[in-house]
TrEMBL record:
InterPro entries per record: Bifun_inhib/LTP/seed_sf, Bifunc_inhib/LTP/seed_store, DIR1-like
Species: Kingdonia uniflora
UniProt entry keywords in alphabetical sequence: Signal
First and last residue of the signal peptide: 1-29
Name recorded for this polypeptide: Bifunctional inhibitor/plant lipid transfer protein/seed storage helical domain-containing protein
SUPFAM superfamilies membership: Bifunctional inhibitor/lipid-transfer protein/seed storage 2S albumin
Top-level taxon in the UniProt lineage: Eukaryota
Length: 119
């Protein structure tokens, strides 16, 4: 089977386009929560759901450990609280942003805004 220069260059162009499409898709996937979607990241915080709605609700140790992990990227935590999924779950942003303090997390961002709210 012989290859001519036209078929080789067409194959090269197609390969280039496939690689380019993959790179663009991966770049778009890197959002507030990196390569993890906000919805997927939000599901890790299900143990915190009660504490996001009621300031008097007990914040569980599991919730606190998940928040510590989420605080590696505070923009992700904020995106979760502000997401359509978060709103549908009834998250109260003013209450949710108090969770790191209620968990006594020492290295929490202070003075950072999440939407129009500050912790």
């Amino acid at each position: 089977m012989a290859f001519n220069s036209k078929s080789l260059s067409l194959s090269t162009i197609i390969l280039f386009l496939v690689i380019h499409a993959y790179i663009v898709r991966e770049a778009r996937a890197a959002g507030e929560c990196g390569r993890t979607s906000v919805d997927t990241a939000a599901k890790t915080l299900i143990p915190c759901l009660g504490a996001t709605k009621n300031i008097r609700a007990k914040v569980t140790p599991l919730c606190c450990s998940r928040v510590v992990s989420s605080l590696r990227n505070p923009k992700c935590l904020c995106a979760i609280f502000l997401s359509p999924l978060g709103k549908a779950a009834g998250i109260n942003l003013a209450i949710a942003i108090t969770i790191p303090k209620r968990c006594n997390i020492k290295n929490r961002p202070i003075g950072a805004k999440c939407g129009s709210k500050m912790p």
